């Protein structure tokens, strides 16, 4: 199982210092949530890890390799996978065809056989319980269903670490539960970094919670430790004092 290590990572946008000396390690089967107030730098951090942004100092190691200068695609090849945005789904193709495209791009040592690809496609859909949507064109799906397809595309790429930034954002309330249930049902041995504002989900799902405030790690630990921390309660939950 691969390990992600951030060492004193900083991100500056001109004079704006958005990520401040962030260090943490994520390894085997960890389900980590990143929480923090709006503007704390959570999305920026995920963008830095996925390769959409290049940090201005510090190091990002994945499985011991410095991946800090690699592109999004190169990091995905190594198993560092972020969910596709809905706009990346191929409209005009069915759900199954979309999943097949992801299966063809997943990292693997040897050229896969047709059977291997078929197996990956069906596993990708059944894990997200979207097999019944296989032959529907993605344009005809609801937003929540599209989000499930994106998750299935990410899983089909055989990620070693999955990054999810607010998976239920932009989804109508009537469907957000379905999406969060799908996140909850992700394989428990798959390391995931999740940004989510639904604290019920965060505290029941995560094995570890990293609290960001003002771009820096305020607290990092198991859910019990985080829930009990006065500083966290004051800054994040607006309680205490
Ligand atoms: N490309 C950019 N250029 C300049 N400033 C940026 C850029 N991207 C983000 N920022 C700034 O960095 C800070 C952190 O933003 P970020 O989106 O990472 O926060 P967040 O924790 O994800 O917030 P939210 O909970 O609202 O999603 C904000 O002040 C934002 O304005
Ligand atoms: Mg954000």
Short structural summary:
The chain has 9 helices and 10 strands.
Provide a descriptive summary of the structure in words.
- By secondary structure, the protein is an alpha/beta fold.
- It has two domains: 140 residues, P-loop containing nucleotide triphosphate hydrolases (Rossmann fold); 79 residues, no CATH class.
- The strands form two sheets. The protein has a six-stranded mixed sheet with strand order 6-7-8-3-9-10, with helices on both faces.
- Helix 6 links the parallel strand 7 and strand 8.
- The structure holds adenosine-5'-triphosphate and magnesium ion.
- The site of adenosine-5'-triphosphate has 11 residues, from strand 2 and helix 1.
- Keywords: ATP-binding, Cell membrane, Membrane, Nucleotide-binding, Transport.
- This is ATP-binding cassette domain-containing protein.
- GO terms for molecular function: ATP binding.
Indicate the overall shape. Answer: globular
Alpha carbon gap, first and last residue: 42 Å
- Tally of structural domains: 2
Second CATH tier, the architecture of the largest domain = 3-Layer(aba) Sandwich
CATH superfamily of the largest domain: P-loop containing nucleotide triphosphate hydrolases
Radius of gyration: 18 Å
User: What string, H for helix and E for strand, traces the elements in order?
Assistant: EEEHEEHEHHHEHEHEEHH
Percent range for helical residues?
A: 25-40%
Q: Treating each run of at least 4 consecutive H or I residues as one helix, how many helices?
A: 9
Q: How much beta, percentage-wise? A: 15-25%
CATH class group of the largest domain: Alpha Beta
The assigned structural class equals: alpha/beta
Unreliable stretches (pLDDT < 50, length at least 5) are none
Overall mean pLDDT: 90
């Amino acid at each position: 199982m691969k390990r992600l290590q951030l060492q004193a990572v900083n991100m500056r946008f001109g004079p704006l210092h958005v990520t401040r000396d962030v260090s943490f390690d994520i390894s085997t089967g960890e389900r980590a949530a990143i929480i923090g107030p709006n503007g704390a730098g959570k999305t920026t951090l995920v963008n830095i890890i996925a390769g959409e942004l290049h940090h201005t100092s510090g190091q990002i190691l994945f499985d011991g390799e410095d991946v800090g200068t690699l592109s999004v695609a190169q990091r995905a090849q190594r198993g560092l996978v972020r969910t596709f945005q809905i706009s990346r789904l191929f409209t005009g193709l069915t759900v199954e065809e979309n999943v097949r495209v992801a299966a063809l791009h997943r990292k693997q040592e040897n050229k896969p056989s047709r059977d291997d690809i078929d197996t990956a496609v069906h596993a990708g859909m059944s894990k997200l319980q979207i097999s019944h949507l296989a032959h529907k064109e993605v344009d005809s799906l609801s937003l929540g269903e599209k989000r499930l397809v994106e998750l299935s595309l990410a899983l089909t790429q055989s990620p070693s670490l999955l990054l999810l930034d607010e998976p239920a954002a932009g989804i109508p309330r009537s469907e957000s539960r379905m999406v969060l249930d799908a996140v909850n049902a992700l394989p428990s041995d798959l390391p995931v970094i999740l940004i989510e504002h639904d604290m019920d989900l965060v505290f029941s799902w995560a094995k570890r919670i990293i609290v960001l405030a003002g771009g820096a790690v305020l607290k990092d630990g198991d859910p019990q430790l985080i829930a009990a921390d006065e500083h966290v309660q004051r800054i994040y939950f607006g309680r205490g004092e």
